[in-house]
Fold each of these.
Amino acid sequence: GVMNFQHIQLEQQGYVATLTLNRPDVHNAFDDVMIAELLNALEQVQHNDTVRLFVLRSNGRNFSAGADLAWMRSMAAKNYDENIADATHLARLMQALDDLPQPTLCLVQGAAFGGAVGLAACCDIVLAESQASFCLSEVKIGLIPAVISPFVMRAIGTRQARRYMLSAERFSADVAKQLGLVHEIVDDLDAAAAEFAGILCANSPAAVTAAKQLIADLDQQPLDTRTQRHTIERIADIRVSAEGQEGLSAFLEKRSPNWKKDS
């Protein structure tokens, strides 16, 4: 059901769960409370079999300004061990979003700075408005984008990370698309999200989850006999699975598969 969160909203309509960052007064900056709530929400979604698409978005003019200033000030006053504990929560959040079994769609308007770039990089599909802008701003204030770096580097590649993580330049939605961080620039985030919901929810839920897991497992792996064996086992597994059997039968019998029946 709907939980009472302070800084976020989580709701489900049909097969789509939408998580909305809801601190527009501070440009959806995140602090320890928001990180804990995001982790809680992701855990709920992960175990909810009725969710076939997870949408991450935010209220207000900006997607997220990154870390909250008051929270950063409190971190500066804490010792090394306390900072380790704190950064661990953020790392867990990025990993949980990256590992979510369901496909994830991120909708970006306005500014996406610092950790917000990390959230986008952990999503499967990122849509941005043409006026959106991005920045890995950490070095400007004497910090580094450490916890988000593996996800950001995987999204934009080492070569571009070497520029944008060192320069802290602000870059446009167009550039973000060229870098591979953003998939599409759209006029209307709501309409585009509805379109992608239709596309993704028409596919076999088990197959989509298996495909996402396959990509995660193969990423950065050498193309050796072990990898080949892994892919052979995966296709064999899914061919004999319930949805694999249903999908093939439906295709051969020229009918709709049963996961398309209701939405």
Note: The beta strands are 8-13, 16-21, 53-58, 104-108, 111-113, 125-129, 133-135, 170-172, 184-186.
Amino acid sequence: DVTDNMTLTITPSATVEAGSNEEVCSNVVFDMSTSTTPPNATNFSSVAWTTSGDGTFGDASALVTTYTPGANDLTNGTATLTLEAFGNGTCPDVTDNMTLTITAAPVAEAGDDAIVCEGDDLDLSASTTVSASNFADLAWTTSGDGGFDDATALEPTYSPGATDISNGSVVLTLTANGNGSCDPAVDNMTLSITTAPTADAGSDETICAATAYDLNTSTTVPTASDFSSVAWTTSGDGVFDDNTALVPVYTPGANDATNGTVTLTLEAFGIGS
């Protein structure tokens, strides 16, 4: 009898597991090593990652790599990541997928720096630059001792406290807490608090009819402080040589002379008002 032998080599089939479905913030690179179930494969000659989206892999030929979501991934909210393991010998290639959910990162804009006069509140709804998006909730905080009417609203009203006024300014911070795994977004604005203006129109005086009156000659000359501008007005029909000057000259009118008296009013406009 004649016999002969042959050896049949049996190559183990490749296996692949793309890992558990995961979520990542849009401004964060996804590290597959942090997955609840990381990618794994056996009996392969090489591996390759591909995406249904437009993101990029740190190393598409590595078993465990990183993925940076692209703009389309963020728009779609998800991307399917596919891991392919190429079999040894005649063994077929195998693939597996995982779904990566991309959560939009929060954005916070506390608005432009602002100025209010002592005694006034800041109404943030009057600002055109306060904004927030992609948030779970909002929170306003202050570096001072003032208070918000609703610290969880996007555009609350802030009432400066005594320390704020004493310091002359306070920092207001808007925090937008993110959805999913996204970290909060934080932004600040500075509120300056100016001292309230004062105005003293001076002492009551008496003049002869048809005579212009120079307020600089008053026993108590008009004064003002902490103002951006001033304006004089009259209850009568006379005229000032410059009603925006602190100490002008007033020429009484015919009605002033007929009435025998006239009230001159000095208004001081606050800085930042």
Note: DSSP finds three helices and 25 strands in the chain.
Amino acid sequence: FTLKDIALANAFRYARDVMPRSFLGPQLSPRPQDIGLDKWQGTPEENATLLKIAMQQMGAAIVGIVELNEQTRKLIYSIDNDGKRIVFDNVAQAYEDDEKRVIPFSAHSAIVYAVQMSDIGMKRAPTKIAQMTTSESYQRGLMIQNNVQEFLRGLGYQGLGEAVQNGLGIAPAFAVLGGLGELSRLNRVITPEFGPMVRLFKLITDLPLAPDKPIDAGIARFCRTC
């Protein structure tokens, strides 16, 4: 590879690796009580619209909401990618210690979002240009996570994200349940808008949100006879 190829790939790879990533988020934005206000109150439908518009401004291509219940909580890992346990408990605030990450049962929603990848870059696989495309997508996903966690904090709610890359839970399953796309024989989620050219991420929140439903865009039906 040429020097310019390597420089472009490393610009995203190393910048991504030093960006902060945490379960609880940066926790830097003032909360409503810090500035003498009550927390945001809206209907689940209003909140979902608000969140999706905000996340689109942050760079998310598609956003879906999945209700966390007895069944869908099984899609959250018991052991995270760094070895810490993830547990649900009857606590008011999420917390983390040396052994576990604790999610309140009051956090009823999983937010799943897609970052669009560059088809121009991926068409150049396997090269440093394609590698850059993947690294850039993960970098953008992490930046969005930090933004959303701070946005939710500013509204008076909790945003619990991936403490490690691809951590917390099964992103493709949440993407299907949240209506972002369908599973395929490609072994990827395929979206109607961007095909499989997306990276998927997820967060958990106690902000009341109206859930989305799975879609039938004909993708899985096409795969059965393809």
Note: The chain has a mean pLDDT of 93.
